[in-house]
Amino acid sequence: xxxxxxxxxxxxxxxxxxxxxxxAAMETIVIRSCYDGDICTSISGERIRxxxxxxxxxxxxxxxxxxxxxxxxxxxxxxxxxxxxxxxITTGRYGRTVGELFVDGMNVQxxxxxxxxxxxxxxxxxxxxxxx
Length: 132
Known about the structure:
It is a single chain. This protein has one domain: CATH 2.40.50.90. It is about 30% helix and about 30% strand. The N and C termini lie far apart (about 35 Å).
């Protein structure tokens, strides 16, 4: 098997799994940092709540600091200083943008769920096409 056919098979598998979506029409932003596993800040200061997923909390009554830090570190590894595409959905109750992020066509929320760092936030799942 050649390297090209192996790469094509990998891309085909990602497409079948729904991890890659067309993102050409979306705006591109750069992520400065992620506060936890589902909240990031762009270099322009926009705070973004990743739609349709939930990750463990770092602080508060329901805090689970160890898995929360693992999710945060994983998300930072995927996004920090990266140009990402954003599909804005709405503005949340804390004034943050609620949206989907994509890196090289990969849906970040879906990837976070697939690797076990996030769970689907069923209450809002209808807002994300990959949940359909």
